[in-house]
Amino acid sequence: MADLAIDPDPLRDRIVDAALAIAEEDRGGWYDLRLHLVAHRLGVPLSAVLERFRDADAIADAWFARALRAMVGGEPAPGFGGVPPSARVHAALMRWFDAQAAHRRAVGSMIRAKLHPSHPHHWVPMAFSLSRLIHWALEAARLDARGLPRQAEEVGLTLVFLRALRLWLEDGSPGQRRTRAFLRRDLGWLDRLPRRPAPDLRRGSG
């Protein structure tokens, strides 16, 4: 739910980590996060936080950018192009969920803060971030449908992802087993869409 830009400034990552830790300690979660407490924990002036993030929502976006990088990171394994589309998308989305599993409670509070009635200015950017996430999931899965099948992928995957996200936020099963099973069950329609043959994904192939 954010872009993929990587900032070399190590303090940015430390701010994100400190904010996440404080939100997990406080019953109020992300909505009650106070940035002066983040600065105090890190031993830096509050202005150092402001120089890097406009507000707590921008810190949340930086966290989601990490998850997005985890989802698209790495080269596909040999034979990945021959795996059914549903399995490829399943693998991509679970990388997104797995990257955040240890902080599921804080992630839920981030999303609720973005959706809070007093934060309407966050709603439209969330829609664009969701669209971007779905596009990157399809890219990570190396799906190359065009026209109506591509539109079906985008709309259908958005609906599946939102249901999976709701489940995942409450999924305390070992290894997020319930979320994995839900995605396996609800992504099967991807295998029935017309599509071009999968490309050769070996590095350096033409």
Task: Give structural notes.
The mean pLDDT is 90. The chain has nine helices and no strands. The chain has 206 residues and is mainly alpha-helical. The longest helix is centred in the C-terminal third of the chain and has 22 residues, at 147-168. It has one domain (10-192): Tetracycline Repressor, domain 2 (Orthogonal Bundle). It comes from Craurococcus roseus. InterPro entries: Homeodomain-like_sf, Tet_transcr_reg_TetR-rel_C_sf. This is TetR/AcrR family transcriptional regulator.
- Label the structural class: mainly alpha
Helix content: 55-70%
* Number of H- or I-type helical stretches: 9
**Which CATH first-tier class would you pick?**
Mainly Alpha
CATH architect. name: Orthogonal Bundle
- The arrangement of helices and strands along the chain is HHHHHHHHH
For the largest beta-sheet, the strand count, sense and barrel status come to: none
| End-to-end separation | 32 Å
Q: What is the alpha-carbon Rg in Å? A: 18 Å
Q: Regions with pLDDT < 50 over 5+ consecutive residues?
A: none
Count of structural domains: 1
Beta-strand residue fraction: under 5%
